[in-house]
Amino acid sequence: RQRQMCIRDRYNSNGIMKAILSPDDSSTQVKAIQSDNILTLSFTLDEYVPLDVNDYVDYEGERYWLTERYLPNEKNTQEWKYDVKFYGIESLIKRFLVLNIVDGEPEPVFTLTALPREHVELIVKAINDGMGGITDWKVGRVEGTENVVIDYEGIYCHEALKELAGKVPGTEWWVEGQTINLCRCEYGEELTLAYGKGLTGLERDKTDGTKFCLLYTSPS
Q: Is 153 helix (H, G, I), strand (E, B) or coil?
């Protein structure tokens, strides 16, 4: 059965629904560590619904926003075709420069020598300030016990995080909700499988256009 989704209006804090849609099989979700989280939706509506910046959809517990105004194509007098990209919260931080507040004034060009956690705290502050002085964004797990030197020369938050991860061995930056982590992106409990130790086969398959792996294990 096709999954139904709702596009909601950016203007209303209660998220007034603009449209209910059923994405077709060409729709995709691509999420990468230290990069974008993009939801590409293809669908048809029987009425013209304009989509504006910051309109959003919720999918698999995550919210995706439109970053530019979108106008659909008119297929005929009763159908409007949409092929539109919504961006996850990882993309929002690309809008904000890392700033150092000196004597009450923001300074975009400076050098900071500090522990990795202090760098992440500075970046998180820049995100919260850029979003209107909120406190929703938090610092999560941050590894590294040596000072790191970064020249902040008008760089954006995602660029700063990438540079920081490159200077702290064995780490990568990733977002969980609105928490920024600097460590290996790992979830759940480690599961070790090997032939002769419970694993009898490994096969790649796909459903609804999404690739996944099938593990065949022997009964315990």
A: strand
Phi-psi group of 177: left, alpha or beta (phi > 0 → left; psi -120 to 50 → alpha; rest → beta) = left
What is the DSSP annotation of 43-81? Answer: EEESS---B-TT-EEEETTEEEE--S-B--EEEETTEEE
4 pLDDT more than 50: yes
Q: What is the pLDDT of residues 163-214, one digit of tens each?
A: 999 999 999 999 988 899 999 987 666 666 665 666 666 666 655 555 555 5
CA distance 157 to 97: 6
CA distance 9 to 15: 6
109, β-bridge pairs? 153
What is the distance between the alpha carbons of residues 57 and 87, in angstroms, rounded to a whole number?
Answer: 10
38 contacts 29 by C-beta, under 8 angstroms = yes
